[in-house]
């Protein structure tokens, strides 16, 4: 069976592009903050970066599992809730 895509891998894309950090960096340097939901607000991204990340994530899922876009979008529904970035308010 094929190895699952790690949510940290999907999160690293928007964390690195938007803030220059990774999930590992957060675990090492923001241990108290990541225990709460507040870190999503602190590391929010623009709507444009969110949309770019979503497209990238869908393509990664399609490539990894060799499946259609429709399958990837359906399969990504719940992981999206766990690893999507918060969008900055304008």
Q: How would you describe the overall organization of this protein?
A:
The protein is mainly α and about 90 residues long. It starts with 6 loop residues before the first helix and ends in a 7-residue tail after the last helix. The protein is built from 6 helices and no strands. The protein has helices spanning about 5-20, 25-30, 40, 45-65, 70-75, 75-85. It has one domain (about 5-85). The longest helix has 19 residues, at about 45-65. About 65% of the residues lie in helices and about 0% in strands. Helix 4 (about 45-65) crosses helix 5 (about 70-75). The mean pLDDT is about 95.
Tell me the β content.
Answer: under 5%
What is the 3D shape?
globular
- Following the backbone from N to C, one meets helices and strands in this order, namely HHHHHH
Distance between the termini: 44 Å
- Specify the structural class: mainly alpha
- Overall helicity: 55-70%
Rg calculated over all Cα atoms = 14 Å
Layout of helices and strands:
Blueprint: H1 7-19, H2 23-29, H3 38-42, H4 47-65, H5 69-75, H6 77-83
Helix pairs in contact: 1-4, 4-5
Describe the structure concisely.
By secondary structure, the chain is mainly alpha-helical.
């Amino acid at each position: 069976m094929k190895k699952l895509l790690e949510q940290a891998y999907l999160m690293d894309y928007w964390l690195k592009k938007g803030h220059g950090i990774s999930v590992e960096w957060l675990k090492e340097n923001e241990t108290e903050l990541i225990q709460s939901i507040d870190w999503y607000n602190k590391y929010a991204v623009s709507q444009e970066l969110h949309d770019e990340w979503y497209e990238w994530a869908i393509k990664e899922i399609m490539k990894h599992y060799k499946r259609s876009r429709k399958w990837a979008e359906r399969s990504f529904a719940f992981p999206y809730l766990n690893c999507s970035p918060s969008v900055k308010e304008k």
